[in-house]
Amino acid sequence: MLKIPPSLFRKDRGRPQRRTTITTPPVALTLVAAEFDQSVSVTLTFDRDIDITSLVASAVIVDDAPESIAYHGDGPGTLLTPRTVVIALVEDGGQSGPVVTLTVGAMTGIVASDDGGTWAGANALQLPFP
Q1: Which residues pair with 46 in a beta bridge?
Q2: Any idea what DSSP says for residue 59?
Q3: CB proximity list for 18: less than 8 A, separation 6 or greater
């Protein structure tokens, strides 16, 4: 029987290895401060830098119950610092109650600059916060 020796110039490299990329999900933004200004604006400060290019200001609602006035956000918003945005407000009806509250849906368009993490919003958060 004839036996052929393996070639000295050919290497068995095995199967090509798959490269797996591990991606970490974005971390949610956290609101660290919120303040209502009687000159009709609300200031929101977050735990890290934000991007407001897709801001939907109308998703921001401030209920000034002691004055029986409700407001919603209007306009593009203004960055005071990389972590702080000021949103202008316009009158939108009225409520009555003892405190001023902030209600914001999750679709505000405010995202973290670093990883795109979003803000879940707020539901009847008493202002000023904290």
Answers
A1: 31
A2: G
A3: none
What does the pLDDT look like over 63-87, one tens digit per residue?
988 888 999 999 999 999 999 999 9
Tell me how far apart the alpha carbons of residues 120 and 20 are, in angstroms, rounded to a whole number. 30
Element (H, E) at 100: strand 100-104
Q: Is the CB of residue 42 less than 8 Å from the CB of residue 73? A: yes
pLDDT tens-place string over residues 9-38: 666 667 777 777 778 889 999 999 999 998
Q: How far is CA 26 from CA 6, 18, 33, 113, in A?
A: 52, 25, 21, 11
What's the whole-model pTM score? 0.81
Q: Judging by beta carbons within 10 Å of its beta carbon (0-12, 13-18, 19+), is residue 47 exposed, middle or buried?
A: middle
Q: What is the pLDDT of residues 116-125, one digit of tens each?
A: 999 999 999 9
In 7-89, which ranges are continuous DSSP H helix? none
Judge contact between 67 and 84, C-beta under 8 A.
no
25 — phi, psi (to 5°)? -70, 155
How far from chain centre, in Å, is Cα 103?
15
